[in-house]
Amino acid sequence: MNNTEKIDRYLRGELPDVDKNAFEAELNQSADLAAELALQKDMEQFLRKQDRRAALKGQLENLGTEFFQNSTPKETGRIVPLRRNQTLRWVIGLAATIALLLIARFLLFQPNLYEQYGQYPPLAMIEKSSAAQDNLAAMESAFNQKDYAKALPLLQAYVQEKPEDLQAKLYLGICLLETGKYTAARDLFTSISSGESSFVDYGQWYLALSYLKEGNKTECRKVLQEVPAESEFAQKAQDLLKRL
Amino acid sequence: MSDNQDLLALCAGDPLRIRAIYQQHAAPIQRWVEANNGSAADAQDLFQDGLMAIYDRYCGADVQFNSSFGALLFGICKRKWFDRLKEKNREAVVRKVEEERYNDEDDPGLESEAATQELHKQETLTKTFALLSAQCQELLTLLGKGVASEQIAEQLGMAANAVYQSKHRCMGRWKELFAQQIKS
């Protein structure tokens, strides 16, 4: 067995006791082996995180070009003479028709408001705990794949074990909401929004969304009107109020 | 409190709060970089590196976060900029900023250094992982996602008992590449 294999089996808890004890004794003796162990741990963590890390990087790149853009000199506008000819008229006519069709489509089938506003950031639980990795990974991937029915029991079990984890509670609420259990979802959102944590704004926003999803515009409006100006969701709340 | 929120937002990829981090910190950092021979594009790179460094150091690790988020971010950006200037060998400038480095009370010294190192490590892991064979990359990625070895064997068309043997071979190769890269 070479070092890589030995370390891997040690990390997965697969070394028999005798070998494990020998390995730990060796670790104390050899700084090189300890460094190898640390590196392999880093690699395992890298593999677990690489998708999310790449996603974050993409997200930051977009924001970066938005916030640091004044370094690129603006292209000066050119004036192109407009030639009147048959083709151009035809193209303009076609474009106008398409535009009209698009407007008509929008007016006739206004997309579902809840679909537009009910978008959640991905659940990232694995990073918060190293215990019970398997369950957390399953929970996270179910949630992020929008399989709320599957994520629900996992989150319920997790919250029962860790009732102080407000983020998990919030996501549990979202699962309940998405699976149509409005009352239970609202109980959670209400308790979060009346607390003093960093999730207050979120609790309130999702409470409003729960009414939106159920089609209860009156209650939804009520909650939205209470969203304070300093809330994370103030702008969205105003927008949604206008459209209700 | 709000510092901790910024960190949580970064770890969770929360788009709204991350946007707020840019709103709050991008302009001052850009001003500082421009005042130190840099461009807005340099500032953009540094800012992103700074956030990634914080992500690499604190998200998912058992490391206590005691700093002010803004000061740490600024500290990492400065540190990276000093290093870049040094590479460019603008000695006079470096001497001046070197002095500032040790006189700047806002720079949470050790933390920004540790985060910068962690970023370097993660970037090196990324770079060397990409040098592995396609099959190694796929196998390790699937294992990292927690896919069962039987399923991986089926997907990659190998015998079930070969999955871990291949894993060890791939990890071994990756470690070699990593060691070469770190040395150079």
CATH superfamily of the largest domain in chain A: Tetratricopeptide repeat domain
Strand element count of chain B: 0
Flag low-confidence runs of chain B: none
The percentage of residues in β strands of chain B lies in under 5%
Order of helices and strands of chain B: HHHHHHHHH
Keywords summarizing the entry:
heterodimer, A: 244 residues, mainly alpha, Serine Threonine Protein Phosphatase 5, Tetratricopeptide repeat, 12 helices, 0% strand, extended, B: 184 residues, Arc Repressor Mutant, subunit A, 9 helices, elongated
Describe this structure in words.
The complex is a heterodimer of chains A (244) and B (184). Chain A has 244 residues and is an all-alpha fold. Chain A is 70% helix and 0% strand. Chain A is built from 12 helices and no strands. In chain A, α2 (17-29) packs across α3 (31-67) and α6 (133-144) packs across α7 (148-161). Chain A is extended. Chain A starts with a helix and ends with a helix. Chain B is an all-alpha fold. Helices cover 79% and strands 0% of the residues of chain B. Chain B has 9 helices and no strands. In chain B, α6 (109-129) packs across α9 and α7 packs across α9. The radius of gyration of chain B is 20 Å and the shape is elongated. The model of chain B has no long low-confidence stretch (mean pLDDT 86). The chains are: A mainly alpha (244), B mainly alpha (184). The interface between A and B is large, with 51 and 54 residues.
